[in-house]
Amino acid sequence: MLRTPIRRAVETGPRVYLRRPTQSDRAEFVALRARNRRHLERWEPIPRGHDAFTPSELDKAFDRELRLRRTKSDERFLICLVTSGAIVGKISISGIFRGPLQECRLGYWLGREFCGHGLMTEAVALATRYAFATLALHRVEANMQPHNHASRAVVRKNGFCQEGFSPKYLCIRGRWRDHERWAVTRENWSDRAPTATPRPIARKPIPGKG
Ligand SMILES: CC(C)(COP(=O)(O)OP(=O)(O)OC[C@H]1O[C@@H](n2cnc3c(N)ncnc32)[C@H](O)[C@@H]1OP(=O)(O)O)[C@@H](O)C(=O)NCCC(=O)NCCS
Questions:
Q1: Structural domain boundaries of the chain?
Q2: pTM above 0.85, yes or no
């Protein structure tokens, strides 16, 4: 299905754009998460014994996305393909802290079938640009478990630096997990999004493209 929702985009790159979720995205978003259960649950802060992937929990989670899509402390964006408008993942800006800190944290995931094409590298560039240029923040942070090599590569390619290591930082599947803490400040960031050279040839075709 060819759609033209790019006009609702908050930031647009060569292959993906970011836009806020709306009620009409519920079915597509929930279906994407439901079919990616195994891919996502080992990285997400879900308490032990809680099944976040039942239809009712997925529904509640989407309600949360709508609630947090634009607040003082949070923003939520769907990551969509420029070519088709298909929803391929999500990127969150959370913990927006004003005052003398002026910072936020990024959280992100992509459907498994869309991984490995550089799409999240582009989406993080767009969200970071939004945080600095639109929200006028000073520092953007992203944290990941040490064995999440793909996530580390994404932030590194966006100019983030590792600032530290926090033992038992976040509770994932009932256990407190160590995390690396990566961040970029406005002074050290160069806007890579518009000039990012798309990979000349995708390693495999992006599903839903065209
Ligand atoms: C992490 C995630 C968002 C990455 O998305 P993606 O679109 O595949 O990322 P990109 O293609 O932009 O970049 C991935 C990079 O990681 C690299 N990478 C992937 N697996 C790797 C591994 N096992 N070891 C080292 N590097 C790896 C890729 O080679 C690529 O770098 P390159 O472009 O220099 O080759 C995606 O894998 C995902 O959604 N994972 C599940 C949820 C998750 O982990 N979220 C983040 C929690 S902190």
A1: 5-184
A2: yes
Residue nearest to atom 12 of ligand 1 (CA): 118
Tell whether domain 5-184 is in CATH 3.40.50.2300.
Answer: no
The kind and range of the H/E element at 154 are helix 149-157
76-89 in b/e form (b: 16+ CB < 10 A) is bbbbbbbebbbbbb
- Ligand 1 centroid–CA 99 distance in Å is 33
Residue 149 CB–ligand 1 contact under 6 Å = yes
Give yes or no for residue 110 CB within 6 A of ligand 1: yes
Reported residue count of the chain is 210
pLDDT in tens, 138-175: 999 999 999 999 999 999 999 999 999 999 999 998 89
